[in-house]
Design goal:
single chain; 297 residues; mainly alpha; Rhopdopsin 7-helix transmembrane proteins; GPCR_Rhodpsn; glycoprotein; corticotropin receptor activity; Adrenocorticotropic hormone receptor; membrane
């Protein structure tokens, strides 16, 4: 989505002239380093789950879905940097057909990262809800077959939607759709939380008998959601301001932080694996075995 997620140079020139706020520029090396770390960390998460049979459960498959989303976000920045380097070295014709096509593909990865994160967090929230309030029926409701089907539907939808958003990125309705998915996810999860709270009040005794792991999973989701909002909300706000008030000096002042907002998105991919490791002893053990090349692998 060129006018949404391209580099800061594409921001409206009039907005810059109307604002006294200097734009914040961060070294591309920092973006590249954080992106590499994000890809490697999330790749470790995926390998840990797929190589450890004890982790091959619906909950961890949903976590893998979120890890893939984070990895795509990091991969987007890596490929973008490579494209810029090739262009600066003269190997690519500026605004040529190849660069335009490559740019569209890279932009699709970015949109896919956001969409994948939104739907992955939503399905994790639904999984935690079922775990807490339908604990006895959980394994009959959330089967591996249903998990695979749900994830296949999610990623098929996200891929199609991501491509469509890049193609029609110059239309305002596309921007509205792109940004509205963020609050819609929050409303969905908030509704689950409110319902969970109301049920918890009327089933306090039942809730207290649940395994601690079930409640711990809900807390982990809360942390993941909080980090996601903190890292992505500034960028979503940037998109809205750039679309609806590009000439306003106050909007332009906020948009001068474009690269800082982009850095937060890259940091999200780095932070999430630490949350998994800190909150899940099983994943933490799997990470240790992978890192230290344990014989158990």
């Amino acid at each position: 989505m060129k006018h949404i997620i391209n580099s800061y140079e594409n921001i409206n020139n009039t907005a810059r002239n109307n604002s006294d706020c200097p734009r914040v520029v961060l070294p591309e090396e920092i973006f590249f380093t954080i992106s590499i770390v994000g890809v490697l960390e999330n790749l470790i998460v995926l390998l840990a789950v797929f190589k450890n049979k004890n982790l091959q459960a619906p909950m961890y498959f949903f976590i893998c879905s979120l890890a893939i989303s984070d990895m795509l976000g990091s991969l987007y920045k890596i490929l973008e940097n490579i494209l810029i380097i090739l262009r600066n070295m003269g190997y690519l014709k500026p605004r040529g057909s190849f660069e335009t096509t490559a740019d569209d593909i890279i932009d699709s990865l970015f949109v896919l990262s956001l969409l994948g994160s939104i739907f992955s967090l939503s399905v994790i929230a639904a999984d935690r809800y079922i775990t807490i309030f339908h604990a006895l029926r959980y394994h009959s409701i959330v089967t591996m077959r249903r998990t695979v089907v749900v994830l296949a539907v999610i990623w098929t939808f996200c891929t199609g939607t991501g491509i469509a958003m890049v193609i029609f990125s110059h239309h305002v309705p596309t921007v509205i759709t792109f940004t509205s998915l963020f609050p819609l996810m929050l409303v969905f999860i908030l509704c689950l939380y409110v319902h969970m709270f109301l049920l918890a009040r009327s089933h306090t005794r039942k809730i207290s008998t649940l395994p601690r792991a079930n409640m711990k999973g809900a807390i982990t989701l809360t942390i993941l959601l909080g980090v996601f909002i903190f890292c992505w909300a500034p960028f979503v706000l940037h998109v809205l301001l750039m679309t609806f008030c590009p000439s306003n000096p106050y909007c332009a002042c906020y948009m001068s932080l474009f690269q800082v907002n982009g850095m937060l998105i890259m940091c999200n991919a780095v932070i999430d694996p630490f949350i998994y490791a800190f909150r899940s002893p099983e994943l933490r053990d799997a990470f240790k075995k992978m890192i230290f090349c344990s014989r158990y692998w």
